[in-house]
């Protein structure tokens, strides 16, 4: 299943899908100015411009996301090392639910403009895709 998904990956279509987000371009350094693209939604306007010591919604969701990441890391180890099949299955169910919650928290933060991503150049995505596609010749089983 993973190989099939990777085969169907298209860097150009991903770049087109990203057009729905706002791209912010900033310059860094005086010599050899390097452009950095970030992908983010506009902030909701609910946060103060200068952050004080009070805990706000962003802080709470950010803390919850950090906790979910910590839990999934530890559940991954637990699932990998569970010696009993039924225990392993239960831990995998909990792990999947935890990953889903992590994604929901990330999506919430992104929608609110509290989480930004760096956009990669489509050419670099295509180059990396080609590189890893070539690795598939080393797999012990044929790709379908």
TrEMBL record:
Stored InterPro entries: Spore_coat_CotF-like (IPR012851)
Pfam families, A to Z: Coat_F
Highest taxon listed in the record's lineage: Bacteria
Protein name in UniProt: Coat F domain-containing protein
């Amino acid at each position: 299943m993973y190989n099939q998904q990777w085969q169907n990956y298209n860097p150009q279509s991903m770049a087109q899908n990203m057009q729905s987000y706002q791209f912010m371009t900033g310059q860094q350094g005086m010599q050899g100015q390097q452009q950095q693209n970030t992908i983010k939604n506009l902030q909701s306007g609910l946060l103060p411009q200068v952050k004080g010591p009070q805990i706000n919604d962003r802080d709470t969701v950010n803390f919850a996301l950090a906790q979910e990441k910590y839990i999934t890391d530890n559940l991954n180890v637990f699932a990998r090392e569970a010696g009993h099949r039924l225990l392993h299955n239960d831990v995998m169910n909990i792990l999947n639910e935890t990953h889903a919650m992590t994604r929901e928290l990330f999506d919430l933060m992104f929608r609110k403009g509290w989480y930004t991503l760096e956009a990669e150049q489509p050419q670099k995505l295509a180059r990396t895709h080609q590189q890893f596609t070539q690795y598939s010749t080393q797999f012990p089983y044929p790709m379908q």
